[in-house]
Batch of 3 targets.
Target 1
Amino acid sequence: MLLTGSRMLSEHGQDGYLVRLAGSVDEVDPGEWDAVALAAGGSIFHSHAWHAAFEEAAPGSVTAAHLLAYQGRKLTGICPAYLTHDCPRLAYAFSLGLPRDLDIRGPILLAHSLASLSGGPLVLPGHQAASRAIDAGLRLAAGDLGAWCYGYANIRPGPFSGWLLAQGYATAEVAIDYVVTNSWTTTADYWAAMRSRRRQSLRGARQRSLAGGLQVTAEPPEPAAAITLIHQLLEAKGSPADLLPARFLEVVLRNLAPYERSILARDAEGTPRAVFTGWRFGDHQAMWLAGLAGDRSSPFEPYHAMLAELVETAIREGVRTIDLGRANGDIKRRYGARSAPLLLGLRSGRRDLDALLHLWCADLQRRNYAVLNGLETASRCC
Amino acid sequence: MNARTVICVAGRRVLEVLAGLGIRVILLDEEIPWDVACGVDLPVECDLTDWQACEQAVRKLLARTGTAADAVISVRDSHVPLAGFLAARLGIAGLPLHAALNCHDKARMRRVLDGAGLPNAKFALALDQKEAVLLADAVGYPLVLKRTRSAGGSAVRLCADAAALASVAAEFTAAGEPAELLAEEYLDGQEYAVQSVTISGQTEILSVFRTHIGPAPRFAEVGYDFPCDLRPRHYGELTRYVERALAAVGLDNAVAHSQVRLTRAGPRLIEINPRPPGGLLAHVSEVVSGVDLVRAAVEAALGEPLTRTAPLASRFRYRCIVFDRQGYLGYDPAALAGPQPGGLTPIVEVDAEPGDLVLAVDHPDGGVYGRIVVFGNDADDLGASFADVLGKLKISLAGQPPARYPSLTTCGA
């Protein structure tokens, strides 16, 4: 389904904000879009470039339906959203077990995707009420676009998620992200702040990798090599490649090249063995995906050396937060990361259906906790 | 006019109230004793943890009997969300499900308060023991550690330092099951219990009690006073805050028993219970407010006007029987007296037999062993009445068990 171009979604008078529905991120000047995203503390996953890539080659089948809040002619809030007909991650979540009677028919209007590490609206400082206007716009857009439910993917706990709970959204913590808040001036400060036994242990692990001939550098990987490594890790984890199709990765790596802050590990022969694919946007650096050669090296052989390099590089560049992505919490915590739940919030507008969404979300969250506690396994990594 | 029908999830006293109102009752519970089953119109036994099975059982029953239900209620903490679910699925009156969940899960409640911009305790969450020991970084010491989904004081502990936090976190996660742990900043201040009813979005405060809290680490509630003796300005501040908090969590067509502390920075919510208070609190609230909270819960769910009577007293003193050390209990059973309908005679209840071993109030397994309540209209009379009851009860605590009990050594235990 294609939207027929942008239009004013509602004369939503709430605090004087007007909300517009945009059928493509191209309808907004990249500088104007990114200025809002940066001022609101957004990461690469809210950038114009990311959504240009997502619109071009997202996994599954989605149609852009972004919500934009204006005060007068000034863009005050952005909420990237997609009418989602098919999403591999969402399909997996549904496959875990839906309540009886929860009949899923048609698309979901989602802001914006389980593939990224953050979602939901971003508004300029001092324009918090624009988030509520956007939410009202999302509801109206869902009705107009024939979505059976609407909501937010991978939002962080905070006032907005609390407000969603009060509005009756069914919510679940669907994954845990690991984030390092950089409070160090130098890399020496970072290591000095660590308990000595841990410091010795982590430095030892790094040294062993480097002594084995591994070369770890902050450099953009060659896209084809990076995609191969990412898919090899997916395969090793038993996750299907349709989560991250090659075409999607190619477009993302191409579009986001100006922001690239990847970490590459090569073996003694110079062959890429592992990659952390990531970008810096404002004060925020996000390591989105990991890739690892499927042969020879043990699963975490290059991991410590790469994490150490990543954190040191980010500290040297004065990055405020370093998002280390999902999974491997035990190791990431040793480098100073703290867990940050990623929430899915959904609502249908129908009381009986919302009750089933609450039930489904409770089960989804229970499964997420069970996976974190080693009581269940997930077949979708990254 | 057809009799109204209410689906009641568990509960006992509420059944009497429903019967008294001439309301047909469908009782849903795990196990229903025959005497209880005989007292309700349609008993349904089912697994209350399987919400969809409950829905299916109720739908079948309604279809088979040609009954149309008007509302679903529960006055038990653990089943309030199920009542909200059934109400939503059946399309009948009841507490909104999201409101039930927002009250039931302490972390959700904190997030909702933040979302509403209401003053709130600093808090942080952990999903396992390793994360739990880092919670103080966000909250600071002293902090209170809780499990997010459990009622009562058994899963609430004060942690003064890192060693205490590590120890309590280990205790709370010892079962090996996933447990979400919530750390909240310790709120220093006088606690109040606020009873209210909300109908169509309008909240009425029915009573405010001054709460006495026992020692750390459990903070058991050990007494209540009415009136609460708050200055009008503070009373207004406290009750307005509670009204806003109830609106924020989405509570409607329900009663609530909220616990709030008045800190130096203003009121801060401890928790909201979307049901009448337990034990004697509902009774004493009725005595001083003229509103039976259990009946009010039914009437609010049905959207009917509240039944009101004139308050019987303007004061009460309610004290729990607790001990500062463990020992063997002694008292005069002749002094015991239950609540009298419409009466203002003192209430004296003891939950243990003479000679039983009782634990200190700050013991993890200790707690409250009974309660004494006196009513009146004059503060001095209240004090005298309380002293009189206490004298007659002759509570004592012995270091050794009475002679009629064999010692543990004799039993070979």
Target 2
Amino acid sequence: MLTILFDGIAYGMLLFVLACGLSVTLGLMNFVNLAHGAFAMLGGYATALLMNRCGVPFLATLPIAFAAPAILGVALERTLYRRLYGASPLDQVLFTIGLVFMAMPIANYFLGDQPQQVHLPLFLQGRVEWGGVGIGIYRLFIILVCGAIAAALQMFLIGTRFGAQLRAAVDDARVASGLGIDVDRLFTITFAIGCGLAGLGGALAADVVGGIDPTFPVKFMVSFLIVVTVGGSNGVLGALLGALLLGVLDVAGKYYVPSIGAFIIYAVMVAALLIRPQGLFARSGGR
Amino acid sequence: MLRAILRAGLAAGAIVAASAAFADDDVVNIGLILPMTGQAASTGKQEQAGAQLYLQQHGASVAGKKIALIIKDDGGAADVTKRLAQELIGNDKAKALMGFGLTPLALAVAPVATEAKVPEIVTAAATAMITEKSPYIVRTSFTLPQAAAPMAEWSLKNGIHKVVTFVTDYGPGNDAEKWFSDTFTKGGGTVVEQIRAPLKNPDFAPFLQRVKDDAPDAVFVFVPSGQGSAFMKQFAERGLDKSGIKLIGTGDVTDDDLLADIGDPALGAVTTHHYSVAHPSPENKAFVEAFKKANGGLRPNFMAVAAYDGMALVYGALEKTKGATDGDALIEAMKGASWISPRGPVSIDPQTRDIIQNIYVRKVEKVDGELYNVEFSTIEAVKDPFKAAKN
């Protein structure tokens, strides 16, 4: 029972890191970025390739798994995304899903369709028993890392000048820029952080899902979107709670009723949308 | 001046000769339709290499004919497969079609083969009923029931009485589950639980925890080849190997092409399949060596062997018909054909046009620092149980 809860929390944390970037771009910048998964894939590939081809240790690849998609994110934001900030959601969806469809064959062309494995270092493998609860060490690692990221993000948004500027810019970009806030720069940095987090999530998820392959962006796309829908799209906390709720329900559902377990997250999403269309954990009146 | 005229004349002559050879009846075109891009691209790659190796080893001429392979990529999309088949038969006058990476792709071509009376040699797709869809379909790969049923028989004889089956919820997974469970229950075993995971399932944790709590003697697994590694890693991570639950399945899970990537968690998995790269026969040693040499060290897997044997089947049939390429004659010649494949002795069942072959029980072991499916028991001349059950 507790093992299931633990596994659920670990899975939820993973979903959180994968989805929180999306929550940031969607909630704070009002931009529907379906290509989010492609950045996650890039991070996963960065880790897998650096480990397998260059022998870089796992932990050392994680900053690169963050940096590489973040840099690509900046480049794409400067050249492509920013043109669509004011566009209709449909344009944004079509554009970003197009990016996904380009990213997948590119990955396939250069790296093949077989999953690239991430081989964890020994100290992250295995399992310990604490009071009868089986705990996978890597899952514990995921919970700790992702928990730390969530805390850091929340503090960053609430407690720093940058966070305050960002929230101001989101609420009213014109007034914010009138007050001397460099909204362009703000959005670029925010977007980069979102992409970087996706990459980090991809790198952490690689072992759990059996390696990174070119279909990775679509594998998690539905989960991302459900997390953001259920959690509400304005802020880190909503995404975190949404992800945890889904992770635990998904794992528990698949354990207790395997025959319908896969549908539980969809049922939760439908219920959540009926009760609180703005998201379960969103501030009322939030946008 | 004279020399220039001579040279021009020679060149013209050569062109005439070349075009004559092109239109020549002596060239037999064989269309090889494979998914070279997309999800199943690794299948295409292995199959292409297998077929080309056969051509390279045995020369292009047989029974006075010259064999030419025309390779087409269908990207794993059934409508493309069908169109390519029509083009190959209509424009290139292909006398046989080979390949077909997935079941829907093989099925899409069945009506084309029937109408054009051209043999369709299925060298990959493994759903049992494919060969029933056209009298011109012959198969050199395997069927899932053929691999899954012997696993149940072996388990019953080796102290495994309680099994949980774990399959991915799609055609082949359900096939494997049905044939394993039916055979196992009929033989007196108990299937405690049948778990089906959705095709796009990122995390196996809850299912594996359930298997662990069921505490069976073994868990029978069928997942699409890419997911095998995730399953096995988590199987080990969750300590199922240490709690005495054996991992059994069909050889798809421990595909030779992926085994190195899965790594040590695969050790000890027992599977039944028709081919292992470690099959200890001189034919296989020569095959593996030549294959690796021709493909930069790539390990052949069961797909490569099936394509290699598809070519062997065509060569054998042409020899029997003395070069006649009429579809009915070729199919007749293929029925009952038997030869020694790298996987061991194989033959084509004259009734069902499906392959009859040995199924081997293997265990993943480390040999010279590399992982292999090491065969330790053989069930000889297994027919497809799906069709055998109907007759």
Target 3
Amino acid sequence: MTTSVPRRRILYAFGMAPLLVACAPIAPGGGGSGAGPVTASNDQLDPEAVLRYADTSSPSRFDPHRSTVGQDIRFFTPVYDRLVHLSPDGQPIPGLATSWTWEEDGRALRMELRQGVRFHDGTPFDAEAVRANVERGKTVPGTSVGTDLANVESVEVAGPSTVVLRLSQPTAMLPGLLSHRAGAMVSPAAFADPDLDLRPVGTGMYRVTDYQPNNVIVYERNPDYWDDTVVGVRRLELRILTDEVTRMNALRTGEVDIALLNGRLGEEARGLPGVTVHQKVTLAYAGLLLNRARSQFADVRVRRAMNLAIDRPAIVAGVYFGAGEATVQPFPSTYYAHNPDFPADHYARDLARARALLAEAGHPNGFDFEMLVPSLTAFVQLAEAMQRMLAEVGIRARLRSVEVAQAGDVFYSQRDGDSLIAQWGGRPDPSMTIGLQYMPGGFANPGAHTTARLEELQRRALSTLDRQEREAAVREASGEIADQALDVPVIVEATTYATTERVANFSTLVTGQPDFRTLGALRTP
Amino acid sequence: MLRYTVRRILMIIPLLFLVSLGVFALVLLIPGDPAITIAGENATEAQIDATRERLGLNDPVLVQYASWAGNALTGDLGSSLFSNESVVGAIGGRFPVTLSLTVAAMVAALLIAVPAGITAALRRGRWQDRGATLFASVGISLPNFWVGILLIMAFALAFPIFPAVGYTPLSDGVGPWVLGLVLPGITLGTAVAAEITRQLRGSLSDTLQQDFIRTARANGLTARAVIAKHGLKNAAVPVVTVMGFQIGFLLGGSVIVERVFGLPGLGDLAIRAVLQRDIPMIQGIVVVSALIVMLVNLVVDLSYGWLNPKVRQA
């Protein structure tokens, strides 16, 4: 999905500094401003157009099963269809699988596959290709989707275009996982190509005709694409421009039509003639993650006091220039996992109550703790703002700077440091976020602390196959996380894209990536 | 002269060896383990170990170095640990950009510095001299990213004469290639221009006070001939030396200027390689850059022979 905080290292959640900064700020809810987003019907679109697009960095790898950064998905979707796609609000919808049904109490997932689809190299897409891809995802050296697929014990080819995924235990979030890198279908004929990282081969609406890492990616239309309703453009040129001002200048001078911007430039971009700014919250949230086995964080009163000490709206406005929405839970208000009973002001700043809770917990004079801060401007600013706010109730944070690439290792693996300023990149399914961050065995839960109720809700969410019941369980879990103040979330971040007048039907998914299936260019009159 | 040249060329070999060894040692000191990143985000300890083994990161340092150096001798600098792109290919793809930028910067610097330096030397103590000295001080102090942003605002945004970002290869036409290099060239060349102006002013005004200049004038040579033939050539040695040094500066400065103008050059490649701990890529870039600097120094040294016949006999 949007990002994924890698399990080993938050590394890339922050690792790619420019990217992170770019994904920072904006106003909640989304929609465009300035010129107003252009929506056009298919016959108003120019299928022969060339669109140019500025992004911040290349994918870590172009092999979806081995890419180490969750956000890479935005580069993959034009080339690689997944078994499952996502609707704009993050719901699983048919992709290369046209339908799926649970069998054997959730221990098997039967998927019907789209017929007549071919990979870019002519290899037919069929049940055998799915089996080969899942096998590869589980076993290829350096796989980053092995954990996503861990519960898949085997893939049975039940017909030329039917597969049955046999699971070791009910895994209701599997369709969500298959919408991301784990479900990306690579041509089996290209598995052995050592240059797969430079020349991706999928079934997607575009093929990559030129790729120079950290310079340019050229996508050209796949004339044999299975979905006739997709218009797209003849050529999509993605240029990697690391510097935010450079991307802005490229947009301003018309050298690109679409630019991923740093949120704080959103306001400026809005003032440009003919430019539309699209800001939409994503699944990435930032705040202070706590090791609840350390310092005084085992006590819920202490954690609530910390949450009450933070002035979220001030941070959203001051540090993020409004590019995001304040939050007390790990999911944005636009997402189905969000629990509406815990709005952003559930922990509105209340110093008196915070002090009272601290006194009740036996710390009338506050306490000291250590805050790890990855050395990236956005995190340092967030840390300093939180440090000051906490100090006002007597909680004294000692800031310890850690190198960005080390932060995840130090806090998660070595279990060093009481807390970490971090951006959690989001996952394609909310149960994954909950499992990793709040379950005892979760990689991103170094204190292995949880609550009995949360465990029960997570168990229910993973084993309930009924979608509505499952969503209810996830929502309740999110509420439990907020109620128990398991960490100190501050902001759900928004991505900021700006487009020129030529660009039509631009939108982003809740995961933050542009929806390439709708994206097009207007015919020039 | 020939022996001198050959000896200088041969000296490059041990120097490159030392540089590559130095870089290798430095890279080992950088904290962070590429195997963890490469193994993927959900990797187990065992998978990370396997990755380390596969990449040869478990081998003794000297073995790693020897295997790298052995391949390097055959022209194979390895592949990026991340994208599998060959290091030679990546550098080869980006070198023309940085080379173009460096040449553009040098041209811009000379176009500014030569007239400014000559004027200052001839009009010593007058307002032209003060103006050139002021330019030199300011030019050296200005951060080049800032100069770049100002130039973009003026000549790409307010008056859209030049493109604000990007590089057009020479193969797409000389015109677009030059247009795209004007602003980055001036940006990167300003500090160099300032430095050369200072040197040229000092050196030329010293030379112009020499006896042979007085003699040349007394013989009735035109002012132009005196300055161009007798003055500049004699004043050139320190200036050429400074220009040689500046090549190193230009390669370093290109890191920032490439970002500001979105040019896919070596500097940009280098930054990313360091951030990712992409060891073969870092090695390759440093060795190639070192080689360039050494070659430039060689050319500078050889040019002394042309400028000053005394050196030829030495």
